[in-house]
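Researcher: I'd like a candidate sequence for this fold, 640 residues long. If you have to choose between options at a position, lean toward the conservative one.
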């Protein structure tokens, strides 16, 4: 009678403290020798507790006088499900040496899985041999576990052979092998297996969609997604993530909208991808709507989702909300701290970024390589050369982080900004690996500021070897020659571009108005409000001239006359986007622009004046950093 009562109590228990009380009752009523009751106790314990409670479960197991095979398997499985395969393996071998405790096919299926996850081919092969001798080779659970184990060990041929030899396999072993092909990135083998499967379920479709998405083949993933008759949260999330990772952000947001229309509720994983797309586009309004959706639907903001919010607000130019989210996070890991430091540095708040680094160290969070990119960028933006060197040398000496080429690039930028061009050149020569285009471009940018033609020419020779068709490199060099009034060399640069048919990368700028992103290219007249935009551009040009603006026509490398060059500069994409912002937003409100390339010198001068003339704060994110234009000045202090 008491046994039935205890079983009923266990069935209804939902919390660990309830199970602990029932355990006490089991001991008190001498039911601690009843394996049926104890097996139920363990199963409820695993169902209602976390991985941190495994030691308590193990103590319960160790106190059982004569655990049977079912109880042993329950404990082995608990360790496996808790990502502790070594403990599963150890417990299995303890079970094997017990007298009168037979192992069954389920025991072998569990320990075979543990071998695969441990990448332990020695024990895996021994166990395979043992189970064959004991007659378990044809068991469906065992064969499925063998398929998984050999696939994880990299022996996909053996895994495929076992699958082919199974009499009438169900979908599980097929999906297991499919998942392993996807895990190692072999989408060809995965798709071949997918095509040969006698039937497929939603797991099969989702696995292959995820596989193509993981290797960046969005087109193949979308074809499969469109073919599926059934889609769940995983299907939608995988596809949205694929678009977000490949920076097809408009498509990611469009698909998220379709997902909502299909009444599929997103989870944290989905929201991370959606926020990434918002950040990439600089779509602050959409990002805020997503944040409100998270709060309204009470989606748990864990460290990863919180970090995504921090990153989204920073990339959208709203560093205040970025800090607000960061400060509200209960738990912060290295990625959260690094994201905040990087965001502050990119917005020109160098001192605050370094202050956050100090706080991060004080709470025993070890920095990683991304952290130091943020720290060195902060030093660069506020001209802290000596402090930058200190951080750079501390990376390996203090924190065990080996400097990568990105960190050397930051140091070249720091030295270049400070006018120490020879030191920057020597650092490049002493690098333990070949400098990339970013490093040489940082040095070339410094040459532009300090009008050093000699080092600029050396930088350009190296840069053009790496990027012979990148028009921006020629533009930089031409501007340096123009500053030095070496007009024959300016002509030579233009001739070089013409001779090797350099195609200028189209500049594009986007602006979000009323939660819709509008994108413009240079000379764009395709927008429905094009006439109004052109009128506003004319007004801007007139008011700029009255304010003393003179177009930098020498920066236009096309073979135009002066009038055509002025017209070309006036219709740069960022100016068109700003004109649209002026006619589409309330007077005095902020205008946020995202530019795909570096903001050109002429636009930088013009936007500073526009911010003063129209009393607007204009925030521009180019490919290098953020520019906050306020009352005729820029946060970059004219170095970008």
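Model: Candidate sequence:
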């Amino acid at each position: 009678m008491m046994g039935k009562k205890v079983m009923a109590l266990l069935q209804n228990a939902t919390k660990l403290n309830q199970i602990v009380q029932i355990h006490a009752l089991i001991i008190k009523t001498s039911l601690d020798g009843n394996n049926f009751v104890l097996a139920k106790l363990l199963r409820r314990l695993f169902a209602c507790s976390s991985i941190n409670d495994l030691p308590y479960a193990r103590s319960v197991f160790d106190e059982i006088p004569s655990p049977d095979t079912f109880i042993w398997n329950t404990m082995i499985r608990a360790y496996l499900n808790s990502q502790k395969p070594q403990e599963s393996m150890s417990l299995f071998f303890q079970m094997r040496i017990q007298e009168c405790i037979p192992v069954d096919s389920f025991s072998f299926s569990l320990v075979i899985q543990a071998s695969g996850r441990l990448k332990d081919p020695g024990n895996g092969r021994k166990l395979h041999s043992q189970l064959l001798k004991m007659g378990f080779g044809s068991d469906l659970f065992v064969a499925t576990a063998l398929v998984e184990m050999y696939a994880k060990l990299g022996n996909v041929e053996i895994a495929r052979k076992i699958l082919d030899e199974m009499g009438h396999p169900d979908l599980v072993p097929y999906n297991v092998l499919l998942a392993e092909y996807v895990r190692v990135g072999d989408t060809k083998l995965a798709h071949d297996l997918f095509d040969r499967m006698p039937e497929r379920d939603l797991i099969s479709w989702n696995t292959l969609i995820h596989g193509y998405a993981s290797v960046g083949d969005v087109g193949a993933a979308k074809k499969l997604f469109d073919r599926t008759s059934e889609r769940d949260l995983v299907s939608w999330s995988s596809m949205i993530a694929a678009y977000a990772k490949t920076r097809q952000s408009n498509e990611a947001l469009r698909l998220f909208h379709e997902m909502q229309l299909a009444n599929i509720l997103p989870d944290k994983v989905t929201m991370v991808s959606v926020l990434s797309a918002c950040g990439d586009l600089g779509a602050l309004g959409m990002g805020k709507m997503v944040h409100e959706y998270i709060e309204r639907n009470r989606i748990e903001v864990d460290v990863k989702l919180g970090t995504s919010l921090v990153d989204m607000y920073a990339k959208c130019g709203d560093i205040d909300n970025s800090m607000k989210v960061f400060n509200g996070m209960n738990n912060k890991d290295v990625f959260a701290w690094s994201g905040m430091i990087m965001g502050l540095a990119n917005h020109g708040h160098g001192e605050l970024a370094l202050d956050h680094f100090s706080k991060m160290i004080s709470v025993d969070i070890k920095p990683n390589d991304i952290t130091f990119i943020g720290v060195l960028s902060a030093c660069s933006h506020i001209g802290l050369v000596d402090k930058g060197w200190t951080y750079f040398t501390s990376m390996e000496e203090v924190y065990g982080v080996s400097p990568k080429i990105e960190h050397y690039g930051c140091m070249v930028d720091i030295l270049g900004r400070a006018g120490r061009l020879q030191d920057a050149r020597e650092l490049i020569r002493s690098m333990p690996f070949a400098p990339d285009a970013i490093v040489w471009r940082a040095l070339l940018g410094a040459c532009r500021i300090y009008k050093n033609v000699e080092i600029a020419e050396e930088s350009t020779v190296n840069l053009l070897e790496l990027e012979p068709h990148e028009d921006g490199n020629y533009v930089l060099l031409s501007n340096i020659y123009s500053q030095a009034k070496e007009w024959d060399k300016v002509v030579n640069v233009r001739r070089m571009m013409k001779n090797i048919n350099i195609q200028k990368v189209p500049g594009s700028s986007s602006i979000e108005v009323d939660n819709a992103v509008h994108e413009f290219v240079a000379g764009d007249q395709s927008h429905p409000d094009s006439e109004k935009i052109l009128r506003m551009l004319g007004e801007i040009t007139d008011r700029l001239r009255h304010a003393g603006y003179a177009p930098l026509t020498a920066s236009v490398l096309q073979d135009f006359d002066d009038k055509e060059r002025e017209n070309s500069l006036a219709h740069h994409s960022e100016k068109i986007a700003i004109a649209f912002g002026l006619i589409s937003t309330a007077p005095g409100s902020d205008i946020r622009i995202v530019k795909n390339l570096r903001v050109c010198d002429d636009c930088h001068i013009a936007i500073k004046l526009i911010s003063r003339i129209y009393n607007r704060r204009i925030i521009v994110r180019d490919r290098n950093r953020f520019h906050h234009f306020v009352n005729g000045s820029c946060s970059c202090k004219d170095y970008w």
